[in-house]
Design brief:
Distance between the termini: 16 Å
Order of helices and strands: HEEHEHEHHEHEEEHHHH
Helix content: 40-55%
Largest sheet: 8 strands, mixed
Mean pLDDT: 86
Strand content: 5-15%
Length: 326
């Protein structure tokens, strides 16, 4: 329940910053069964939010362990079941010249394998770091080693590796476009060999084909057909709700964007800061509006209906263009 609520909020918040998120080949996402999702990593925590929102099933995310040093993020990770992974670069900085402990992620790997045994889905960024490069960085072998361990040592059947390509028109620009391309999965039951390097090369090949070698997905053709503009009662209600949502959320979102752009020192930060500031400012405006409406009408049910109208408006303002997807 909490995961679905946070996923819903994340989907709306992502649309406060980005103009549109276009998804290609969503039908390739397995509806069930053990799954390792391999995504490129160009936009820090935003990448996880996009992947989590795109996937129709619940996923367990991984993140660098240094993030749990911040109490608020650590608490959120605990609620969502995020698995922290210790990167070699972070461990080296902590230990100075001492080599990184090769067993540092044994516990995390064990937790991931338990999730796969329960037919769960795990999101991993095999590049190992977020970056500003347009191309795919060299992949670590951790994901391949996990997949082989799951198949050969844990005897997990039906495991797949699903490549996801995230493409940003301009990740730091408000109103820009995000593309999400879903690639062909690797079925571990039919993968020949136990060499993690060979498997990593194949994962990189498939990821590269849907990220750096692929452009932004085009606007869907059915959005430009004349039938799309025929106003039916349902579309009229959706348009009305979306207009109300834009009217009641425009000011706090604009302020959040400006604050985010002013405080950002890296292209990774504007979108995430917009969502953080936006959620805070929107909640503040909700409290103020509910207080005013409650004082005027002195009716719990009318006040509750007004709150519901704010939530419905926020939803349709974000998803009006693609009501069938959400």
């Amino acid at each position: 329940m909490i995961y679905r609520l946070l996923r819903w909020i994340a989907g709306i918040a992502l649309h406060w910053f980005y103009g549109e998120i276009r998804i290609v080949s969503r039908e390739r996402i397995p509806a069930c069964g053990p799954l390792l999702i391999a995504a490129n990593h160009q936009n820090a925590l935003v990448d996880s939010l996009i992947a989590g929102w795109v996937m129709p099933r619940r996923i367990t995310m991984t993140a660098k362990a240094t993030l749990i040093e911040k109490p608020l993020i650590a608490a959120l990770f605990g609620i969502l079941g995020v698995v922290p992974l210790r990167r070699t670069s972070d461990e080296s900085r902590k230990s100075g010249s001492s080599p990184a402990d090769r067993s540092r992620n044994v516990g995390a790997f064990r937790e991931i394998l338990r999730t796969l045994e329960k037919d769960g889905a795990i999101l991993i960024f095999p590049e190992g770091k977020s970056h500003n490069e347009t191309g795919l960085e060299p992949l670590r072998t951790g994901l391949a080693r996990l997949a082989l361990q799951a198949r050969d040592e844990q005897s997990i059947k039906g495991l797949r590796i699903l490549p996801i390509g995230l493409i940003f028109e301009n990740k730091g620009a408000p109103g820009s476009i995000v593309g999400v391309r879903v690639g062909d999965s690797i079925e571990m039951d039919t993968w020949v060999g136990r060499d993690p390097i060979a498997l990593t090369v194949e994962i990189a090949k498939r990821m590269r084909s849907i990220s750096e070698l692929a452009g932004l997905p085009p606007t869907e053709s059915n959005e430009t057909t004349s039938g799309h503009h025929i106003l039916t009662p349902t579309k009229g209600l959706i348009a009305l709700a979306a207009t109300w949502g834009r009217l009641t959320h425009d000011l706090p979102v604009r302020i959040a964007r400006r604050l985010a752009l002013r405080r950002s020192s890296d292209a990774d930060q504007p979108a995430m800061l917009t969502m953080m500031f936006g959620i805070g400012l929107v909640l503040l405006t909700y409290v103020l509006q509910i207080a005013v409406v409650g004082a005027l009408v002195r009716s719990f049910w009318i006040t509750f209906l007004y709150l519901a109208s704010l939530l419905v408006g926020a939803y349709w303002a974000a998803f009006e263009k693609h009501p069938q997807r959400y």
